[in-house]
Amino acid sequence: METGSPDDTGTAGATEPVRDQPVWTGLPPGLLRMRRLLLVVWLGLLTLAAGLLPGLFLGPFWAALALLPGALLAWGWVMLERNWRSWRYAERADDLLISRGVLWWEETVVPYGRMQLVEVTSGPVERHFGLASVQLHTAAAATDATIPGLDPAEAERLRDRLTELGEARSAGL
Amino acid sequence: MTRPGAEKGPPEARNGPPGATDAAAGAEDRSGAGADMSGAEGRLSGDESGAHGPGDGVVERRLHPVTPLRRAWAPVAVIVGWAVHDPDQAQRQLSRLTTTTLLLGLAVLIPAAALYGFLTWWFTHFAVTDTELRIRTGLLFRRTAHIRLERIQAVDVTQPLLARVAGVAKLKLDVIGTGKKDELAFLGADEARALRAELLARAAGLAPETAHEVGEAPSRQLLRVPPGVLAVSLLLTGATWGTLIAAVVVPTLLWLATHNLWTVLATALPLLGAAGASSAGRFVGEYDWTVAESPDGLRLDHGLLDRVHETVPPGRVQTVRIVEPVLWRRRGWVRVELDVAGSSNSVLVPVAPREIAESVVTRVLPGVTVPTDAMLWRAPRRAARCRPLWWRGYGLAVTDAVFAARYGLLRRSLALVPHAKVQSVRLTQGPWQRALRLADVRVDTGANKTATARLRDADEAARLLRAQAERSRTGRRDALPDRWMA
Fold this sequence. Notes:
The complex is a heterodimer.
Chain A: H1 11-15, E1 25-26, H2 30-57, H3 67-86, E2 88-91, E3 95-100, E4 105-111, E5 115-121, H4 124-128, E6 132-138, E7 145-150, H5 152-168
Antiparallel strand pairs in A: 1-2, 2-3, 3-4, 5-6, 6-7
Helix pairs in contact in A: 2-3
Chain B: E1 14-15, H1 20-25, E2 42-43, E3 60-62, H2 73-85, H3 87-96, H4 99-122, E4 125-128, E5 132-137, E6 143-148, E7 154-159, H5 161-166, E8 168-174, E9 184-188, H6 189-204, H7 208-211, E10 220-224, H8 227-235, H9 238-258, H10 261-286, E11 290-294, E12 297-302, E13 307-312, E14 317-324, E15 333-340, E16 347-353, H11 354-364, E17 377-378, E18 395-398, E19 402-407, E20 412-418, E21 422-429, H12 431-435, E22 438-445, E23 450-457, H13 458-475
Antiparallel strand pairs in B: 2-6, 3-4, 4-5, 5-6, 7-8, 7-13, 8-9, 10-11, 11-12, 12-13, 14-15, 14-20, 15-16, 17-18, 18-19, 19-20, 21-22, 22-23
Helix pairs in contact in B: 2-3, 8-10, 9-10
C-alpha cells in the first residue's frame, strides 16, 4: 500500500523548524469489508430469526418484527463506513498522529521518543481478511494508540519505522 | 510486567524498541536517557541451585534474623479466621481435642513452621552491584530479581510498629514493575539506612569504590506539619465528616427499618472502619510529616506508629497536584499530592499554607512557578451550556516548564505536569462539545495519571495539541540525567 509519509522525515527534517501540515493516511478498505461482513452475518441471522419465528408461531403480522434488526443493519452499514473513514494516521518528523471517531472524536499525538513497545497483532478473522493492527505503548497506560486494519506489510513497515525512530529519539520517563 | 496490554499478542509479532534490547545487553552508554520497563524484570532462573554466589565477586548478604518471625502470626490468623467463620464447627472440634493430640499437633506444627521460616530466610540473599540490586529468593521456585539502580523512582524505608520495637526496617526500591515481593524485609534499622545511602549514591553515579562509605547525604528541612494543624485540617475535610455521619446515620436508619442486630452490625462495622481510616488513620499516618531536601532528592518522613521514610531522587516526579478543599480556603491551606511512576505514595504535603507549599513545589519541580488564579485561562462562557456551574472551576495555564490544568468547584485541584514528563497528548470531543465548538485536551504521564484541560475552545485545543506535543518532545533536552550526579 502506498503511504503518505513525506520524504523529509529523515535526519535533516528532525531539526527543521518548519512543521508543515500532517500528511494523513487512511485505512485500507479491508477493515470496512470485514466489519460489514460481520455485521451482515450476525444481524442477518437475527433478522431472519426475528422474521421467521414470530411469523410462524404468532401470525404473519408479527413478522414485521424483522424490520427492527433490519433497520439496525442498514444503519450500522452506514455507520461503519463513517467510522472507517474517520480513522487516519500521519507520521510526522517527530511524532505519530492518530485521529479517529465521528461523534466522539479523538486525536492522539505520541512523540516517537516516548514509545516503549510497538505491537503488531492479528486475530484469526483479521488474518483471513489480510489485516493487522499496530499498537503503540508508552509508559502511560492511558495512551491508547492503536491503528487497526492495516495491510500486514504496511503494519510491519510502520512497526520497523516507529522502532527505528523511537531508538533515534529515545527519552525516558 | 506492569501493563496488562503489553503482554498480549504473539511473541513473534512484537518488537521491543527503545530500551528493551539495551537493558538486556546491559549497555551503560546511553547516559541515562534510555527508557524501558525492563529495569524491574524479575527473572526466574530454575537452574540455579544452592546458595552459591553469582560468581562475579559480588558480596551477597542475608536479611535480618528476625525475618522468619514476620509470618509467625499467619497460622494463628488462619485458625482464628476459621473459628470466627464457623463457630459451631470449631466448638465441636475443640471438644474432641484431648491434651495429647493438642501437644502432638503443636510438636509437629511449630518445628515445621520454624523450619519453613528459617529456610526461606536462609535462601534469601541480596547483593548490591555497581548497577543493580539483586535479590535471590525462593525455596523450591527460585526467583532472581535484578533491579537496575538508574531506573529507581523512589526508595522507601518503612518501619511498622512491631518492627520499630524489634529495631528492624523494610527497604523497597520503587522501579516500574516492582511489587511487594521485591522489598527487603527485614533489615536492621541502621543497616537499612546505610543501604539506602549506598543505593542512592550508586544510582546517582558516584564512584563505586566510595559509594558504600559516603553515608547519608546531608538534608535540609523544608517543612514540618505541626500535629495541631494536621488535626484541624482533618476536621475541616468533608470526607471525614461524610464517613462519620454515614457511620452514625445509616445503622440507625437500618435499625429502625429492620430491628435486626446482625444487619446493623454488618453495615456499621465497615462504615466505622472507613470513618476511622479517614480521620484517625490519616492522622496517625500523616503525623509529624517532614519534607526535607538533600542531594539525593526529596525526603519524606512521617507516621506516628508506623514510621515511613521515603526518598524521591531528582527528576522523578511526574505530576504535582495542588488540592484546595473548600473549607481550607479561608485559612489559605492546601494539600500537595505527587505522582511518581511505580510508587504507591501520593502525598507530598498533607497540609500547609499556600506560599510554603508552593515553595516546596518549586523544589520538587525546579524552575516551575505555580500559576496563580489570575494566570489561568478560563473556559469560554459557552462551556456553561456543556457543564453548568462546574465550568467555572476549569482553568488552564501553559508555562515554559509545565502544563497546568485545574478543575473542581468546591475542592479545587490544580495538576502540574512538566513538559518533559508528557508521554502522549490527546484531544477528545464529544457530540455536544462539537456543537458548542469545545474540546478537551488530555496529557498522559508515566505514572498512569492524566491531566485534562477541560472544555477549551476547539481551535485553541487543536493548537494546544500540536504545541504541547512539540513542547514535550523538546522539554526532555534540559531535563536532568537519570544518574543525577554523574
